[in-house]
C-alpha cells in the first residue's frame, strides 16, 4: 500500500484516484496505529501530501483558509445534448436497476454540464434507487450552485440548492452560500444577518423532512456550528435535532463512523486550521463535542439539558466530558472570571 500510494503522488494522477488514495492513507494510518505503530507516521505523511495535491487543484488553499473550497473541474459549457438523448433508450433496456440507475446518473451529469437542465431532470426522474438519485441531484446542481454563488445570485443559488435531495450535500451548499453572503460585503454584515439566518433556517426545515441517517446528523451539526453564533436559540434547535436523530439511530442498533463521505462532497467542506482532513472536520462525535463546548461557555445549564437528552449512556458521558473540558478551559484562562454560580448546577431528568 505504501508503494502504491507513493507511486500515485504525481501531478497527472486523476483527481478521483487521488481522493481514493487519500481515503486509503487515512484508513491505513488508523489501522496501523495499534499493530504497526512504526508505519503510522509514513501513512500520515502520505495523507498530508495527497491532501496538498488535491488542494492545489482547488480555487483556494483548503488547509489555511478555513472556508469551503469547491472544485473547479466541472464547469458548465453549453453544447449539443442530442447524443445523450439517443443513448437514453439503450439505458432504459438495462435490466439490473442499480446498473441502470448508475448509467442514468452519468447521462444526467453530462446533460447538466452542457447546460441542459431540462434533460438532466428528466433523466433523474427515471432513477429508482434513492441513494443514487440523491447523489445525482447533488452532482447535477452543484455546478449551477457554484456559478450562482460566484455571481452573488443568492436567490438562484438557493433555488438550485433546494433541488438537491442529498441531505449532507444540500446542507453543505447552503452553508457555502451563507458564508459567501457573509463575505460579500462585511460593511453590511449586520443587515445581512437576517438573510444568513434565513438560509440556515431553510436548511433546517429541509433536514427535518429527511429520514434519520448519520449524514443527517452531520448536516444538523454543520448548521448548528455556523448558526449558533448568529442565533443561539436556533443553533440549539439544530443540535437538539441532531441528538434526536442520533438517538433514533443508536436505538435501532446502528453504529457511528460508518457513513462514508463521497469524493464530490470533500471539497465543499469548510476545513478549520485545527484539522488536517475533511473526515476529522465533520466527524459526528467531534462536532457534537465542539458544539457542546461552545454552548457550555455561554450557558452551562443549556449544555447540560442537551447532554441528558441522549438516551445512549456512552454518548451522554461523552457530552458531559465535552462540557467539563469547556469549563476547565475557561477556568484556566488568566482573564476569565469565576462563574457567578451560587450552587452547583443541577438539571433534573425529564
Name the descriptors:
350 residues; 18 helices; mainly alpha
Strand-and-helix sequence, N→C?
Answer: HHHHHHHHHHHHHHHHHH
Question: What class do helices, strands and sheet pairing give?
Answer: mainly alpha
Strand content: under 5%
The rounded distance between the terminal residues' Cα atoms is 52 Å
Describe the global form.
Answer: globular
Number of strands: 0
State mean pLDDT (0 to 100 scale): 77
**Count the helices. How many?**
18
Overall radius of gyration: 22 Å
Share of helical residues = 55-70%
Low-confidence stretches: 58-73
| Largest sheet geometry | none
Short description:
By secondary structure, the chain is mainly alpha-helical.
Task: Outline the structure in words.
The protein is mainly alpha-helical and 350 residues long. The protein has a domain at 2-57. The protein is 67% helix and 0% strand. It has 18 helices and no strands. The chain has helices at residues 2-8, 15-35, 40-55, 62-65, 82-92, 97-113, 117-124, 130-150, 154-162, 167-184, 189-207, 214-227, 232-251, 263-266, 278-281, 284-298, 300-307, 313-332. Helix 16 packs across helix 18. It starts with a helix and ends in an 18-residue tail after the last helix. The model is unreliable at 58-73 (pLDDT under 50).
